[in-house]
Structures are given as structure tokens and as C-alpha cells.
Amino acid sequence: MPLFLLIAYLVLMDNGAVSQTGTFLHELMHDGRHLLGVPCH
């Protein structure tokens, strides 16, 4: 269950707070949110 919550946070809520070392993870999750229809702008 905690792993699911972490993944849900990364996909739905993360706006770069987790990926401070680079932008790859942020951009990957950002594009994924657009594919899922989650508003992020």
C-alpha cells in the first residue's frame, strides 16, 4: 500500500519536489499526467 501511495504521488502530485537532481523524472511524470487527463497547469 505505501508503494502505491508513493507512485500515485509521483504521477499525480509531483511538480518537481521529488526530482530536484534533474528534470527527466519530472518531465516524464508531467507527460504522464497529461496522458491521464490530470490537470497540472
From TrEMBL:
This is CbtB-domain containing protein. It comes from Nonomuraea endophytica. InterPro entries: CbtB_put.
